[in-house]
UniProtKB/TrEMBL annotation:
PANTHER family reported in the protein's UniProt record: GALACTOFURANOSYLTRANSFERASE GLFT2, RHAMNOSYLTRANSFERASE WBBL
Gene Ontology molecular function, alphabetical: glycosyltransferase activity
Protein name (database record): Glycosyltransferase, group 2 family protein
UniProt keywords, alphabetically: Glycosyltransferase, Transferase
Superkingdom as given in the UniProt entry: Bacteria
Residue intervals of the Glycosyltransferase 2-like domain: 18-137
Family of this protein: Belongs to the glycosyltransferase 2 family.
Length: 290
């Protein structure tokens, strides 16, 4: 039984788990998340990593003693990258081959992993899906009907191979948050693995309090992130540009974000100050938690 369960897709280990990183979650939204996960077939455990949430006791009251859940509790906010590595190490420890990584406020579509399984071949590192944002609709457009290889994907809704995670050296904990997924995809693809978006699978997601606007004749997203998140975006995007020798692309992304803050967001002076700090720290090579 266990062996049949393990090897069902061309010799690919299909024992899989779910991992969710928690930081002050909206409990009702998290319950929707978990209820949708229960509709999926085949996962072994749901691993919850709590980054010192203020409402941790409320969440633990729901699932703290449930056999389907594994809890990892951090005494301070360790960031998304550290929490994701904790999840993947736990999956490896429990003998899993794959992990569905989820944001705390995302909700999976019906049959997500069943759709992923149709496209599992050797050297696939991540399978991802179409993403619908609650605020502005579909995040990606494509003429592809089934699946396509892409360069990057967000963490939420991603089906990540343990072997690919190990080959890439794990998530970069020095980045803390923002750009962690892009950096990981760079290293994973360099290790010979691919990222594939499956168009028959979807995820309901939310990027900050985003809205679409027109910037310089093109559609752009106003994210309305906090000043601290904008610090990490500016710093980590430039780090990616420096590290992988694609500086001008990522410098433009920072410039575009700066321009959107100036034109469309409230509290722009504080946000501009934090972005400036992020730019300075990237040039100085300073990483880690702010």
């Amino acid at each position: 039984m266990e062996e049949n369960e393990k090897k069902i897709n061309n010799g690919i280990d299909m024992r899989w788990y779910v991992g969710i990183v928690l930081y002050n979650p909206d409990v009702q939204r998290l319950k929707q998340n978990v209820e949708a996960l229960y509709a999926l077939i085949g996962w072994k455990r749901i691993i919850l990593v709590d980054n010192a949430s203020a409402n941790k006791a409320e969440v633990k009251a729901l699932w703290g003693n449930h056999k389907d859940f594994v809890w990892i509790e951090n005494t301070e906010n360790m960031g998304i990258a550290t929490a994701l590595n904790q999840i993947m190490r736990q999956v490896e420890l429990m003998g899993g081959g794959w992990c569905l990584t989820m944001d705390q406020d995302s909700v999976v579509g019906e049959g997500l992993v069943e759709e992923y399984r149709k496209f599992m071949v050797d050297r696939i590192g991540i399978l991802t899906c179409r993403v619908k944002d609650r605020n502005f609709g579909w995040m990606y457009s494509s003429r592809c009907k089934e699946a396509e290889e892409i360069e990057f994907c967000i963490t939420s809704g991603s089906f990540l191979s343990v072997e690919a995670w190990k080959s890439a050296g794990g998530f970069n904990e020095d980045l803390f948050i923002d750009g962690v997924d892009y950096d990981f995809c760079f290293r994973m693809r360099a290790a010979g693995y691919s990222v594939v978006r499956v168009h028959g699978a979807f995820l309901l997601h939310e990027v900050g309090y985003a809205k679409k606007v027109c910037l310089l004749g093109h559609e752009a997203l106003v994210l309305n992130h906090s000043p601290l998140r904008l610090y990490y975006i500016a710093r980590n995007y430039l780090y990616i540009g420096f590290t992988y020798r694609v500086f001008w692309h990522w410098a433009f992304e920072v410039f575009k974000r700066f321009l959107l803050v100036v034109l469309y967001e409230e509290g722009r002076l504080e946000k501009m100050k934090y972005m400036y700090k992020g730019i300075c720290h990237a040039c100085m090579g300073r990483l880690g938690k702010y």
